């Protein structure tokens, strides 16, 4: 024999409710007061209510729509749906989804293995979950997301954002405060952060565009692509390509076996890597490169250039400061010098490979060139300092810039 009982009760519009129920559904409409509801294995629906709400439910969906006041919901193994809540809101559930729209106060969600999706929080928002996707947009305060093995998507956050997760993708867009991402083995995509950004992950791609402050990336074995950062950039990575474009401040790259390509950097650039090519173009300040077994190609450098490498070529064009290259079995070529300041210097030193230097016709330099086994060719008049043409000197103008060329192979000094 089965039995179904349905009870309908009319109460005043202003009435606090205390309800205890099991194995049945509860529906409440248009009641304002301090509401305390305990239900087991039944659906709960509140519409157009207000005051305050504490709801303890399990194994079924809880829906709160158009509530004026604070809301606290605990729903074990049950889904939670919230819409138009004019107050601070807390949710705790497990294994089922949480969905929200338009929370007028703060929002705190603690969900175990539950998908979380929502839009519109007036102040701060905290979301904790695991193994399921988390998507939050339009937050008026700070956003903190803690998701073990959860994919995280966040957009349009007025203040600071902190994301902690692992193994799943992270996608962030439009943050007016700072951004901090701590992850492991998560691909990361970040666009439009107004202040500083910090990203830590591993083994997966990192793509960042449009950062208004500083950028700090720690990405072990991560391909890194950076574009349009207003302030300084620091990148630590290994074994994958690093591409950086349009940085307003300085750039520091510490990589191991990473191909590096940088362009349009307003400040100084420092690159450490190994075994892979390095390219730098349009650098406003000093360029420093330490690249064991790396080829180096640099063009249009506004400050001094310092290069240390081995076994691969070094090609420098359109420099505007001192040039110091120390190579080990590296061919060196320097051409199209834009300017040589009076206090600058050029030192090109290598072994077993040729050196080519093109000097402006009106250069104000003193050149000392020495080869051990090769020949020295030059378009300028020279002074011989030994009998076998292996050591020469050139003086142009007042000789204010010192130039030293040294290798065991050929040296060519051209006039441009």
What does this structure look like?
The chain is an all-beta fold and 416 residues long. The chain has no helices and 42 strands. It has a 42-stranded mixed sheet that branches. A hairpin with a 6-residue loop joins β39 (383-384) and β40.
Q: Secondary-structure blueprint of this entry?
A:
Elements: E1 18-22, E2 26-29, E3 32-40, E4 44-58, E5 62-76, E6 80-85, E7 89-94, E8 98-103, E9 107-112, E10 116-121, E11 125-130, E12 134-139, E13 143-148, E14 152-157, E15 161-166, E16 170-175, E17 179-184, E18 188-193, E19 197-202, E20 206-211, E21 215-220, E22 224-229, E23 233-238, E24 242-247, E25 251-256, E26 260-265, E27 269-274, E28 278-283, E29 287-292, E30 296-301, E31 305-310, E32 314-319, E33 323-328, E34 332-335, E35 345-349, E36 355-359, E37 365-371, E38 376-378, E39 383-384, E40 391-395, E41 401-407, E42 411-415
Parallel strand pairs: 1-3, 2-4, 3-4, 4-5, 5-6, 5-7, 6-8, 7-9, 8-10, 9-11, 10-12, 11-13, 12-14, 13-15, 14-16, 15-17, 16-18, 17-19, 18-20, 19-21, 20-22, 21-23, 22-24, 23-25, 24-26, 25-27, 26-28, 27-29, 28-30, 29-31, 30-32, 31-33, 32-34, 33-35, 34-36, 35-41, 36-42, 37-41, 38-42
Antiparallel strand pairs: 37-40, 39-40
- Oligomer kind: single chain
Beta-strand percent range: over 45%
Mean pLDDT: 95
Number of H- or I-type helical stretches: 0
The low-confidence runs, each spanning 5 or more residues with pLDDT under 50, are none
Number of strands: 42
Rg is 33 Å
Structural class: mainly beta
Main sheet properties = 42 strands, mixed
Shape: rod-shaped
Distance between the terminal alpha carbons, to the nearest Å? 104 Å
How much helical structure, as a percent, in the residues?
under 10%
């Amino acid at each position: 024999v089965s039995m179904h009982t349905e009870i309908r009760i009319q109460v005043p519009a202003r009435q606090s409710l205390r309800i205890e129920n099991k194995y049945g559904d509860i529906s409440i409409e248009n009641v304002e007061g301090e509401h305390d509801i305990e239900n087991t294995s039944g659906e709960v629906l509140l519409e157009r209510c207000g005051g305050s709400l504490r709801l303890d439910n399990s194994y079924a969906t809880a829906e709160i729509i158009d509530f004026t006041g604070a809301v606290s919901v605990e729903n074990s193994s049950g889904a939670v749906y919230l819409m138009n809540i004019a107050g601070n809101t807390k949710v705790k559930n497990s294994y089922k989804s949480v969905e929200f729209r338009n929370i007028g106060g703060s929002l705190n969600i603690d969900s175990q293995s539950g998908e979380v999706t929502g839009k519109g929080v007036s102040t701060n928002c905290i979301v904790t979950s695991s193994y399921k996707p988390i998507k939050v947009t339009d937050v008026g305060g700070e956003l903190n997301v803690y998701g073990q093995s959860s994919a995280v998507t966040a957009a349009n956050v007025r203040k600071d954002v902190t994301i902690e997760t692992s193994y799943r993708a992270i996608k962030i867009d439009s943050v007016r405060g700072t951004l901090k991402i701590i992850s492991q083995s998560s691909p990361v995509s970040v666009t439009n952060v107004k202040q500083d950004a910090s990203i830590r992950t591993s083994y997966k791609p990192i793509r960042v565009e449009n950062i208004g402050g500083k950028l700090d990336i720690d990405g072990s074995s991560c391909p890194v692509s950076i574009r349009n950062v207003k302030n300084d950039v620091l990148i630590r990575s290994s074994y994958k390509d690093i591409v950086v474009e349009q940085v307003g401040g300085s750039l520091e790259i510490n990589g191991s076996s990473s191909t590096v390509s940088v362009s349009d950097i307003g400040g100084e650039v420092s690159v450490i890597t190994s075994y892979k090519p390095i390219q730098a173009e349009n650098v406003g300040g000093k360029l420093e490169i330490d690249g064991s077994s790396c080829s180096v190609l640099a063009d249009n450098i506004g400050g001094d250039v310092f290069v240390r490498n081995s076994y691969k070529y070094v090609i420098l064009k359109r420099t505007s400061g001192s040039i110091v290259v120390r190579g080990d079995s590296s061919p060196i070529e320097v051409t199209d010098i834009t300017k040589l300041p009076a206090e600058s210097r050029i030192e090109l030193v290598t072994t077993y490979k040729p050196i080519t230097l093109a000097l402006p016709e009106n250069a104000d330099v003193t050149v000392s060139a020495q080869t051990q086994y090769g020949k020295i060719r030059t378009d300028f008049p020279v002074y011989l300092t030994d009998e076998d043409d292996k050591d020469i000197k050139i003086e142009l103008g007042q000789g204010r810039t010192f130039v030293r060329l040294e290798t065991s192979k050929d040296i060519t000094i051209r006039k441009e």
